[in-house]
Amino acid sequence: MTTVRLPLFPLNSVLFPGLVLPLNVFEERYRAMMRELLKTPEDESRRFAVVAIRDGHEVSPSAPGMPDPTAVPERGPAAGFGDDPLKAFHEVGCVADAATIRERADGSFEVLATGTTRVRLLSVDSSGAFLTAELEELPEDPGDEAGALAEGVLRAFRQYQKRLAGARERSLSTGADLPDEPAVVSYLVAAAVMLDVPARQRLLQAPDTASRLREELKVLRAETAIIRNLPSLPASDLTRGPTSLN
C-alpha cells in the first residue's frame, strides 16, 4: 500500500483526475496552506488533496449570526468539521497539483490546480495551521470491456448535450473533440453531467473504469429521457464548473 501525507482541502464539490480546479482562497487556514505550498520549488509539484465534505461547512462562520447571535465562531484548521474531521469527509478524494498560486494584495490567493490521482483518506491531522491527511493512492483499474463502454458513454453524452442545449446535430462536438481513453472519458463525463455531490462521489470511488462507465451510461440515459419530457429545463454550460469560495 502506497501512502502519502498531504495538505487537505475540503470542498462542497468533487474533484476528478484530469479536471481543472480554480480556487479563491481567503480563510486563514487555507492561506497558511498556500504559503506552505509556495515553499516548494517551482519545478516540483505543489500537491494537496481535495475531499468532498459529507457533514460540515466549507467556510467556517467568522462572526455570530442566525439563529444564535451569541454563538462563538469556531477557529482553527478543523473549524466546521466537528470533533473528528475524518468522519466529516467522504472516504475517497483526489490529489490536486497547483499549477498557479498567486497571492493578492489583501493576502488571499488565486489558485489553479488540476486533479491527478484518486486517494483514500486514512487519517486527518488537525494539530497544525491547516489540515493534513494520510492518504492511500488508488490505482485506476480498467475493468472489463472499458473500451466498448467508453464508446457507448460518448454517444449517450452527445445525446445528453443535444437535449440539454437544444442544439442541432451539426453543432455538437465531434468525436475528434472528445477523448477516447476510457478512464479520461469516465472522469470527463462524471464532471460534466449535472449531478449532486453524493452521485459524483459514487462515480469517483467506483472500483474500476468499466464500473464507472456503466453507471454513467445509466445516468445519461435517464437524464436524457427526463430532459426530453421537460423541454423547458434551462440550458447549462457544461464546460464551466463552480469556483469555490475558499
SSE pattern, N- to C-terminal: EEHEHEEEHHHH
- What's the structural domain tally? 2
Helix content: 25-40%
In terms of DSSP E residues, the strand content is 15-25%
Count up the helices: 6
Measured between the Cα atoms of the first and last residue, the distance is 32 Å
CATH superfamily of the largest domain: LON domain-like
Main beta-sheet strand count, sense and barrel state: 5 strands, mixed, barrel
CATH architectural arrangement of the largest domain: Roll
Structural class: alpha+beta
Using only C-alpha atoms, the radius of gyration works out to 20 Å
CATH fold field value of the largest domain: Archaeosine Trna-guanine Transglycosylase, Chain: A, domain 4
Task: Compute the number of strand runs.
Answer: 6
Sheet with the most strands: spatial strand order: 1-3-4-5-6
- Overall mean pLDDT stands at 85
Q: Indicate the CATH class of the largest domain.
A: Mainly Beta
Q: Based on CA inertia axes, which overall geometry fits?
A: globular
Could you name the ranges where pLDDT drops below 50 across 5 or more consecutive residues?
167-176, 233-243
InterPro entries: Lon_prtase_N (IPR003111), Lon_prtase_N_sf (IPR046336), PUA-like_sf (IPR015947)
Keywords: Hydrolase, Protease
GO molecular function, one term: peptidase activity
Pfam families: LON_substr_bdg
